[in-house]
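Protocol step 4 of 5: obtain the predicted structure for the target chain.
Materials: sequence only (see below). No template structures provided, no constraints applied. The aim of this step is simply to have a reference model before the mutagenesis design in step 5. Sequence pasted as it appears in the construct record:
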Amino acid sequence: MSRLFNAYVIVDWSAAAKPTTGADSVWIGVMKRDVRFRLTFEAFNPATRAEAEKRLTALLDDFRKRSERALLGFDFPLGFPRGFAGALNLPGEAPWRAAWDQLDRMVKDKPDNTNNRFGVGSEINRRMTGGPFPFWGCPPKDALTTLQPKRTREHGPDDLPEFRHADAAAKAASIWKLYYNGSVGGQALLGIPFVRRLQAARGPGFRIWPFETGFRNLSEADLAGVEVVAAEVYPSLHKAQPGPGEVKDLAQVRVTAEHFAKLDEAGKLGAVFGPGNGLAPEIVADAEREEGWILGVEG
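Step 4 output (structure tokens):
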């Protein structure tokens, strides 16, 4: 049985506001085969997101030259809870793409990691509710009328959901939380425009799962002409024990890359792109249209 991918790249993202390395910074883990087809691993720890973009571009260029297909995993949501695009009155037939385009217009992320993620969260809150909801979480110095350091209220029946279907299934954090330990909202606001740029530079050979591939099992035939499949991953699902000198982030990208490589080696990775048994059709539809899904999480 042929493998779907030649390389497995896992990105542990960071919303840091200044250059930083080590723990809680950007880590890029690359699992690929050497000339003897043995899996080898290397990691990169760029100090800024701009450096990470250059590194990933160079890696993907190298894979293209070698005619090698890569699985590219990001540890932040690639979509928002169902109803997000509608609540902002965003145009277009694809709610996920409308949200991506909107963030690309709003987000400013400078080469030194200075960014406006709290301002973006505040402005989306203003447009949606006129108050500090649904986004929340920021340093007190960044507090605004429409963004507060702490959550001001619970989600009600008439609000957008607090969690995507995938978040509920994985017991993952809510995208609405922009700051503090365990938050993913800031990473998503800065990360989605980043993935959008990577795709724009590479064209139709760069596919976003499940939005552009469908939430279904994938085969070699499905990926004909595809160079990169980008997906959301959740490294915390995989028990990563740091080795000597490794920080937790490095161990997580290594173990996650190894996990998908082993599944591919066994001919089992294609099924992971599907919803598995028992996931309701409306949940599959939400995942494909707007919310996305976490690769490897069962409903």
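Step 4 remarks: The chain has a mean pLDDT of 96. Residues 47 and 167 are 29 Å apart (CA to CA).
Proceed to step 5.
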